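Hello, quick one for you while I still have it in my head. My current little project is about how a certain protein chain folds up. You're getting the sequence in one-letter code plus the fold written as tokens. Would you mind checking whether the tokens look sensible for this chain? Here's the protein in full, and shout if anything looks odd to you:
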Amino acid sequence: MNDTTPEVTERYRTLLMRRSGSDRLRMAYEMFDCARQVMIARIKAVHPDLPANELRVKIFECTYVRDFEPRERARIIARLRSR
């Protein structure tokens, strides 16, 4: 769903592109970091006693599960669990 008018979308893009590349990169990092912290808080709320290696597995699954084929995903998860 997109309820933003094309004019507002273009205005936002114009304002964003006025920022330096490093500023836009910093903004993206801060948004990713915020989303990651929310994800970790949600995982810990559901699984409060999760060991650190299993937390890494859950983070991986939430973040990257669609980016890997099942065999590669299983290999990565096994590696995360062995740490």
Summary: DSSP finds four helices and no strands in the chain.
